[in-house]
Design brief:
alpha+beta; 25% helix; four-stranded mixed beta sheet
Length: 168
C-alpha cells in the first residue's frame, strides 16, 4: 500500500519564501495564464527535500490542487488582482494570502476574465531560473508526477485586501 507523503499547513513564512513564475500560453482550449509556485533550494539550515515537499503539498492541499489529468479541477475564484499589478491567492485554512507581484499582459488577461492554471512544484527551483529552465522543470516534473494543478480565475474582493493580511 502506498502512503501519501505528509503535508504541512502553509505558514506566513512559507508564503514569504516561495517563488513564482507567470506566463500565458496557447492551449487546446485557448490562451491560458499560468502561475507556477515553487520553493527555492536550501533556504534554511537543516531543511530537507522531504520537508520542502511536505510544505509544498500543504500549499497545494490548501488550494485543492490535483495531479495532472485531462480535466483540471476548478478550484474556484481564489485569485484577486490588486491594482492590476499584484495577484493575491486565497488558500483554505490559512490566515494569509499568497502575494505575487505581477503586471503587464498577464494581469490584463486575468482581469479580463482569463483562466489561470495554478501549478505547485514539489521540488525546489532556483529563483533566478531562466524561462528555459522553468520549461524543463515543468516538462520533467509533469512526467514524474511532481506537479499539482488546478484552474481558477480572478474574483473581485468585496472588501479591500492588503497583501499579507488575513482574508475577509
Amino acid at each position: 500500500m502506498l502512503t501519501q507523503p505528509a503535508t504541512i499547513t502553509p505558514s506566513a513564512g512559507l508564503l514569504a519564501s516561495v517563488a513564482a513564475w507567470f506566463w500565458i500560453d496557447p492551449t487546446k482550449v485557448g490562451h491560458v495564464a499560468f502561475l507556477l509556485i515553487a520553493h527555492p533550494p536550501g533556504r534554511r539550515p537543516g531543511e530537507s527535500p522531504q520537508m520542502v515537499e511536505a510544505r509544498m503539498r500543504g500549499l497545494a492541499d490548501a488550494l485543492t490542487l490535483a495531479e495532472p489529468a485531462a480535466l483540471l479541477p476548478d478550484i474556484g475564484p481564489r485569485l484577486f488582482m490588486h491594482r492590476e499589478s499584484d495577484a493575491l491567492l486565497r488558500l483554505d485554512g490559512c490566515d494569509y494570502l499568497l502575494h505575487v507581484p505581477i503586471g503587464g499582459g498577464w494581469a490584463r488577461f486575468v482581469c479580463d476574465g482569463g483562466t489561470v492554471t495554478v501549478v505547485v512544484g514539489l521540488d525546489p527551483l532556483p529563483v533566478s531560473s531562466s524561462l528555459e529552465v522553468v520549461d524543463a522543470y515543468i516538462t520533467e516534473r509533469a512526467t514524474q508526477g511532481r506537479l499539482l494543478l488546478g484552474k481558477t480565475r480572478a474574483d473581485r474582493p468585496r472588501h479591500s485586501i492588503k497583501p499579507g493580511a488575513p482574508p475577509v
